[in-house]
C-alpha cells in the first residue's frame, strides 16, 4: 500500500462544485474527454437530455458524468444536476488497498494511478467508498483502472482542470482546499435560503479534494452518507495482517468489501 495522505501540502488544491449553479449542460463531460484523448462527439451532441433518464457512473471512456435528480426536496434549483468523478480523498482507501503502489496520493491533492505498476487485482475498486473507479474489462491486453486525474498535467503548467475551464456558469471553482472550504461556508452563511448547511467532502471519508454545496440535503441527491474518518487505516491494517499470515488474496477482497460496508453510516454497501 502506498502513502494515503500522511504528509499533505497545506496548499493542496481541490474543486468546489456549487450544485445550485449547475445547469446540466454537460460541457464538463466533453471537456474531460477532449483533454484526456477519450472518444467523444461534437459539443452539440452533449445537449442530449435523454442521458438523464438513468443514473450514470464514470466509465473508461467517460471519467466524469453529470446526473439529474428530480423532486429532491429542499430549496434551490429543481431538478438538480450532479457532476460525478473521482473525489480525490485526503486519505484514500484505494491507495491503502493497492498492493503494489499503483495508486498514490500526491501531497498537492490529486490521487494518481500508475498503470505500469497495476496488476489488475481491482482491490482499489472494492475499497472506494464512492464506488467511482472503473476498469477496462473489454481491453484484451493490459486493461487499466480508469479515473479522473484532476488534470494534473494542465495544473502543473498553471492551467485549470478542463472541466473547470469549460463550465459556462462557473459552477466549478478550482483553488486551495482550505480557501474553497472557507468560500463554501461564506456562501452558505450569506444565502441560508439557498443552501443547506453542509459542505459535502469537508469531512466525509476523512475529507476529499472535491467539495460540494447544494440547496437540498445530499442524502436526497444520492450522495453516500459516510463516516467522518477515512476507511484507509482500517483497510491497511487488515491487509497487512492478512499477508503476514499468507492468506489467499481472495480473502483480502472480501474483507476490504466489509471495511467499505462498515464505513457507510447508512448501512448500504
Describe the structure.
A three-stranded mixed β-sheet has the order 8-1-9. Helices cover 26% and strands 13% of the residues. It is globular, with a radius of gyration of 18 Å. The chain is an alpha+beta fold and 269 residues long. The chain is built from eight helices and nine strands. The longest helix is centred in the C-terminal third of the chain and has 15 residues, at 249-263. The model has no long low-confidence stretch (mean pLDDT 89). The protein has a single domain (1-269), classed as Alpha-Beta Plaits (2-Layer Sandwich). α7 packs antiparallel against α8 (249-263). A hairpin with a 5-residue loop joins β4 and β5 (111-113).
Summarize the structure.
The chain has 8 helices and 9 strands.
Shape: globular
User: N-to-C SSE series?
Assistant: EHEEHEEHEEHHEHEHH
| CATH class wording | Alpha Beta
Question: What integer value in Å does the Rg equal?
Answer: 18 Å
Could you give the order of strands across the largest sheet? 8-1-9
Distance between the termini: 23 Å
Note the beta-strand portion. 5-15%
Main beta-sheet annotation: 3 strands, mixed
Low-confidence stretches: none
Tally of helical segments:
8
Q: What integer is the average pLDDT?
A: 89
What is the fold-level CATH name, i.e. the topology? Alpha-Beta Plaits
Fraction of helical residues: 25-40%
Secondary-structure map with pairings?
Layout: E1 13-18, H1 27-35, E2 65-69, E3 80-84, H2 93-97, E4 103-105, E5 111-113, H3 123-127, E6 134-135, E7 145-146, H4 152-156, H5 162-166, E8 172-176, H6 177-190, E9 210-213, H7 232-244, H8 249-263
Helix pairs in contact: 7-8
Amino acid at each position: 500500500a502506498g502513502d494515503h495522505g500522511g504528509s499533505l501540502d497545506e496548499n493542496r488544491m481541490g474543486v468546489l462544485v456549487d450544485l445550485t449553479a449547475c445547469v446540466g449542460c454537460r460541457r464538463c463531460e466533453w471537456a474531460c474527454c477532449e483533454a484526456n484523448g477519450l472518444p467523444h462527439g461534437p459539443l452539440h451532441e452533449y445537449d442530449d437530455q435523454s442521458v438523464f433518464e438513468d443514473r450514470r457512473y464514470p466509465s473508461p471512456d467517460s471519467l466524469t458524468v453529470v446526473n439529474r435528480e428530480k423532486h429532491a426536496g429542499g430549496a434551490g434549483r429543481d431538478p438538480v444536476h450532479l457532476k460525478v468523478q473521482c473525489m480525490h480523498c485526503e486519505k484514500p482507501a484505494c491507495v491503502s488497498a493497492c498492493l503494489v503502489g499503483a495508486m498514490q496520493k500526491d501531497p498537492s491533492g490529486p490521487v494518481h494511478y500508475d498503470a505500469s505498476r497495476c496488476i489488475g487485482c481491482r482491490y482499489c475498486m472494492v475499497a472506494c467508498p464512492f464506488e467511482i473507479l472503473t476498469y477496462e474489462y473489454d481491453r484484451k491486453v493490459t486493461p487499466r483502472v480508469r479515473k479522473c486525474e484532476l488534470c494534473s498535467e494542465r495544473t502543473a503548467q498553471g492551467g485549470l482542470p478542463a472541466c473547470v475551464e469549460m463550465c459556462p456558469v462557473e459552477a466549478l471553482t478550482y483553488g486551495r482546499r482550505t480557501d474553497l472550504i472557507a468560500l463554501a461556508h461564506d456562501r452558505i452563511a450569506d444565502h441560508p435560503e439557498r443552501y443547506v448547511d453542509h459542505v459535502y467532502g469537508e469531512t466525509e471519508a476523512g475529507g476529499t479534494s472535491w467539495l460540494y454545496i447544494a440547496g437540498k440535503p445530499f442524502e436526497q441527491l444520492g450522495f453516500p452518507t459516510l463516516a467522518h474518518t477515512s476507511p484507509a487505516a482500517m483497510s491497511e491494517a487488515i491487509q497487512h495482517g492478512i499477508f503476514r499470515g499468507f492468506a489467499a488474496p481472495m480473502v483480502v477482497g472480501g474483507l476490504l468489501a466489509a471495511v467499505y460496508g462498515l464505513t457507510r453510516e447508512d448501512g448500504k454497501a
